[in-house]
Design goal:
The complex is a heterodimer of chains A (335) and B (268). Chain A has 335 residues and is α+β, with helices and mostly antiparallel strands. Chain A is built from 13 helices and five strands. In chain A, strands 1-5-4-3-2 form a five-stranded antiparallel sheet, with no helix packed on it. Chain A is elongated. Chain A starts with a helix and ends with a strand. Chain B is of the alpha/beta class and 268 residues long. The two termini of chain B are 35 Å apart. Classes of the chains: A alpha+beta (335), B alpha/beta (268). The interface between A and B is large, with 44 and 47 residues.
Chain lengths: 335, 268
């Protein structure tokens, strides 16, 4: 245990922790808006495009982080333009960019004379090799993403919820759409060092999917997703550091698997809560056609009788075996 | 305030190069309750979308509240209720949140909700009778209730002019009655209402004037009609020459388009 604490005290580990916190906050914040637009895979598409950006950085000697930001933002804008001008939801546009980005990246890395191992740092993350400069850039970009996602949340929510209404409400829908696309690109590059470009989308989408199992409103979903994202990325990093004494455990996949584990726990809970709520929805009040009474009823319904009690107008129906029994004086009515 | 709320002169709309609406003249004075009627594909929804700027006019001139449309920025005076389907999305949203987004016509970015905003949202929820369900997720509501949420959203912006695109489509009769009561309240408050409807149902007694669309043109404009008259309204009007009955064409081939192609949306 002592050597674990020593490990956490090392500078590279502290840099990694800071990067994990900021990435965990920023990625699900944008991810919420992507999921709301049913574009959960957009982060993945941008991640693939960013591979080309990283490769361009390796080729030209410029910082791969910045070339990735630029190329990913261009790719995101392109996806958005194709989506707006084209038909339906643009999954074809995503596919085109997926393969173009990945193929271009691998090709250019080869041209640059770099090994696949160098590219792999970006594909699957290498949070423990992050430099001081990278940490500062990560913090700054993540802070911008979080501030915009939270500060402009009423506008971004309205645009993602109903574009036509937003346009008639006088919002510049195109600007907000492009803003979300660029924010997604920025958070992809921010998360690139943490979980890697191929796993980025997981950190953007999985915490949102987990949060919406239990939430009923947009704001709680957004807040819970950011919290879960941070827990997953920090927890995953600590877990992989702890496990590293016994085996070679990469932080990136650990973070993603931890986030998925959260979903696996929340999902059955969500299913149970939703079915429970559905069963207790009040029955509609309709004029009863016939008055059907039940002669003998051996059971006395009540608050704790174990049968589902559903409000029905001014009284309560008790549901059992496909019947709805309502108390009426001394006997029960079939409703 | 002698300006009509809506004035469209010789308006035309083309979608993907095909003329859909032609020669539309429509003037709506303040406080009127107008029903836009007609069969599916007659262009009534397209007309509302043109009046709200969602479809650009190919020709003609549109004035809202006396301001030419290209200079119109007073979006807070307009409340738009789109066809149902806009209420749910990929992430849960509470009824209150959806209604609150109707306040965006009056809020500046990065400002928190003020007291007036909260009062307007609560009032809008009250009018449609969903105040008690404000914190439930929209997706758990029935179709008719979701439609009421969308009306409350438009209502929250306290507009003077409402556009409602088929609010009663697929809504059961009790919910239609609640919608009608809501519109009655709005109309009594002095709002101008443009209602797109296939059938009026319980709304019929509220209508001041009916406009019947047929094949992208106005076929009838006058006092309210009984629903069985709508289908034959164009026969009473001799201004547009004679009509040849057109066979209905249905395109059963699935639509395949490249993603680079321009917008090709048909009337929804």
């Amino acid at each position: 245990m002592n050597e674990y604490l020593d490990l956490l005290g090392l500078p590279f580990m502290q840099r990694a922790l800071i990067a994990a916190i900021f990435t965990g906050l920023a990625a699900p914040a944008v991810g919420t808006y992507l999921v709301q637009r049913r574009l959960a895979l957009m982060g993945d598409g941008i991640g693939h495009v960013a591979v080309t950006g990283v490769a361009l950085g390796l080729l030209t000697g410029a910082s791969p982080t910045w070339t990735a930001v630029v190329v990913a933002a261009l790719g995101a804008v392109l996806i958005e333009v194709i989506r707006e001008r084209g038909h339906a939801n643009g999954d074809v546009a995503l596919a085109l960019l997926f393969y173009g980005g990945l193929a271009g990246g691998v090709l250019i890395t080869g041209l640059a004379g770099q090994s696949g191992a160098r590219l792999q740092q970006y594909l699957f993350g290498s949070i423990t090799t992050i430099s001081v400069g990278d940490v500062v850039v990560t913090m700054a970009l993540a802070a911008v993403v979080v501030l915009i996602c939270v500060g402009l949340s009423p506008q971004l929510f309205a645009v993602a919820q109903d574009q036509e209404f937003a346009r008639v409400a006088g919002l510049n829908v195109r600007v907000y759409n492009l803003l979300v696309a660029v924010l997604a690109a920025v958070s992809v590059t921010v998360a690139m060092r943490t979980v890697g470009l191929l796993l980025v989308s997981a950190l953007m989408v999985v915490p949102v999917a987990t949060a919406q199992q239990l939430s009923r409103s947009f704001r709680t979903t957004l807040a819970a997703a950011m919290l879960l994202g941070t827990l997953a990325s920090v927890g995953g990093l600590l877990l992989s550091a702890y496990a590293s004494f016994h085996a070679r455990v990469a932080p990136g996949p650990t973070i993603v698997l931890l986030a998925l584990a959260g979903f696996v726990v929340a999902w059955p809970l969500g299913v149970w809560l939703r079915s429970r709520r559905r069963l207790r929805q009040p029955f509609p009040v309709v004029e009863a056609a016939v008055h059907q009474t039940i002669g003998e009823h051996p059971h006395q319904h009540g608050v704790d009788c174990g049968h589902v009690a559903v409000p029905h107008g001014d009284h309560v129906d008790y549901v059992h075996d496909g019947h709805r029994h309502a108390e009426h004086g001394r006997h029960y009515d079939e409703h | 305030m002698s300006d009509p709320v809506i004035h469209l002169a010789d308006g035309a709309v083309a979608i993907a190069g095909r003329p859909i609406l032609r020669h539309i003249d429509l003037t709506v004075p303040a406080g009127e309750f107008l029903a836009l009627m007609g069969a599916n594909g007659s262009g009534k929804s397209t007309l509302v979308r043109a009046l709200t700027g969602l479809h650009p006019l190919a020709s003609g001139s549109l004035t809202l509240f006396g301001t030419p449309f290209h200079r119109f920025r007073d979006w807070r005076r307009i409340g738009f209720v789109p066809q149902r389907g806009g209420a749910t999305s990929g992430v849960p949203a509470s009824v209150w949140e959806v209604v609150a987004s109707g306040r965006l016509t009056r809020r500046r970015p990065l400002r928190p909700l003020g007291r007036a905003d909260r009062r307007a949202i609560a009032d809008a929820l009250d009018v449609v009778g969903l105040a008690r369900r404000a914190h439930e997720s929209v997706s758990t509501l029935s179709g008719g209730q979701q439609q009421r949420v969308l009306i409350a959203r438009a209502l929250a912006g306290e507009p003077e002019l409402f556009f409602l695109d088929e609010p009663t489509a697929g809504v059961d009769l009790p919910n239609q009655q609640i919608l009608a009561d809501t519109l009655q309240t709005l109309s009594d408050r002095g709002a101008t209402i443009v209602l797109v409807a296939h059938e009026l149902g319980p709304m019929a007694p509220l209508i001041d004037r009916a406009v019947v669309m047929r094949d992208g043109r106005i076929a009838y404009d006058g006092p309210p009609l009984a629903s069985e008259q709508v289908a034959t309204a164009h026969l009473d009007l001799h201004d547009y020459g004679h009509h040849h009955p057109e066979p209905e064409r249905h395109d059963h081939a699935p639509h395949i388009a490249s993603p680079i192609e321009g917008p090709l949306e048909a009337e929804r």
